[in-house]
Design goal:
16 helices; mainly alpha; 2 domains
């Protein structure tokens, strides 16, 4: 049974959860840069484009199952808080089965999936041919990647984010090493990059399973009556469906943002793309504390401990506030030079600097919705998350319709941040009901 008394929810405990997540996130862009750099040594444009578009398509496909990480984190944390170790083990079996089954489905239906992807994002004949070869190899690791989403959520629920960091770093090291061997050493080109990633992803799954080995020491992991318990399966499906709808709405808002940004011209589109990297940096940093909230709030709710739930939300949110405050200051004083490093076109630099104040405000405005997302995931209050995201999407659409025609790209940024405010306010209004659930 987890130790979830209010006095045990310390700042050190929160940092113990959060810091490895932040470090793991830092490694993510490194792999993409190495993949591009290695394939770029071939001296041709088509292989670079093929690896880029192939990776984007597969990431988008796998992202559909991102709910598995969030849903698993909340459910496993609550089971741990309730001292139900059997359910913790059985839940791991369920998510692994879902991941493997979904991955197998993608393998079986890869032809129509790839066809649809290139219908939506057409490429030249040479790039498409190379991208299909790349994807045709990598798709065979789909079961591993989707199952890893569930393992990540399970490890977060156990506060074992160092294990998550170990998995991420190991996958990157294996991938990078094999990139150099297969592409530069053996000359396998695009197929070599794909094979390196394929082997790294299966290595990640193997390591993840080994790190979860304690769960397989309990008979409940293969107690099929419990694994296939109808009530638990229905709850899991309901939670994951709500998260999927919420995530699709969030992605639709991001896509709409880019689409409308393009309508203001190429310079504004490029400036927006540069500035979105500031948001990505903020999200990477905030993930650690949001994940901490998922684990600690979930455990407190599972234990029926309202004071511990409140302290979990408070301490993680304090560190989230410190993080966004630091980032806002960094963007304020160093945002201009950062923009100049990322974009060399003077027109893009000037436009991005013009919109930079929105990036100074974004972390401060985004703090509440980002932290509340973690809190509500831990409590599996996913219906509220779904409904508040629907309201926020409507607010975004209305604000954009009003502000866009008058203020142009400034109106677009204003509408986007107004949607953050809407999400934070509406989720905040539902927080008291979430706390009340801890009283039973």
């Amino acid at each position: 049974m987890s130790e979830i008394a209010p006095a045990t929810i310390t700042h050190a405990r929160v940092l113990h959860i959060a810091v490895p997540v932040v470090l793991a996130n830092v490694t993510v862009p490194i792999l993409g840069a190495v993949d591009t750099g290695v394939i770029g040594q071939l001296g041709e444009a088509a292989p670079i484009g093929a690896v880029g578009i192939g990776a984007i398509i597969l990431t988008a496909i796998y992202w559909l199952f991102g709910f598995l990480r969030m849903g698993t984190a909340g459910l496993a944390a609550q089971a741990r808080g309730a001292g139900d170790n059997g359910e913790v083990s059985a839940l791991l079996t369920r998510v692994l089965m879902i991941g493997l089954a979904a991955g197998l489905g993608f393998i079986l239906f890869q032809r129509p999936l790839f066809w649809a992807a290139f219908e939506l994002a057409p490429a030249t004949g040479e790039v498409e041919t190379l991208a299909r070869a790349y994807m045709g190899i990598r798709i065979w690791s789909a079961p591993a990647m989707i199952a890893l989403y569930g393992i990540m959520g399970w490890l977060i629920a156990q506060e074992r984010t160092r294990s998550l960091l170990v998995v991420q770093v190991t996958m990157n090291v294996v991938n990078i090493g094999l990139d150099f061997l297969f592409v530069l050493g053996l000359g396998w080109g695009v197929e070599g990059v794909a094979l390196a990633t394929f082997l790294a992803e299966w290595t990640g799954l193997g390591l993840g399973l080994w790190l979860c080995r304690a769960a397989f020491r309990l008979p409940a992991w293969r107690d099929w009556t419990q694994v296939f318990d109808r009530a638990r399966l229905e709850r899991m499906m309901r939670v994951n469906t709500d998260i999927l709808i919420r995530s699709l709405l969030l992605e639709a808002m991001v896509v709409s943002f880019m689409f409308f940004g393009a309508s203001f011209g190429d310079v504004e589109l490029a400036a927006n793309q540069v500035l979105l990297q500031f948001l990505h940096i903020t999200a990477f940093a905030m993930d650690g504390f949001a994940f901490g909230a998922e684990s600690l709030v979930g455990q407190a709710l599972g234990a029926g401990n309202r004071p511990a739930l409140r302290r979990s939300a408070l301490v993680t949110s304090i560190w989230g506030a410190v993080t966004v405050g630091v980032l806002a200051l960094v963007f304020l004083f160093a945002g201009g030079p950062i923009i100049d490093l990322m974009a060399k076109d003077p027109a893009v630099q000037a436009a991005a600097r013009d919109y930079l104040p929105w990036m100074v405000a974004a972390p401060l405005i985004g703090w509440a919705p980002w932290m509340l997302d973690g809190i509500f995931i831990g409590a599996t209050a996913t219906r509220d998350m779904r409904n508040m995201m629907i309201l926020s999407a409507v607010v975004f659409a209305v604000a954009l319709a009003v502000l866009g025609p008058v203020f142009g790209n400034h109106g677009l940024w204003a509408a986007y941040l107004i949607s953050y405010v809407a999400r934070g306010v509406t989720l905040g209004a539902r927080y008291p009901a979430l706390e009340a659930r801890a009283d039973g």
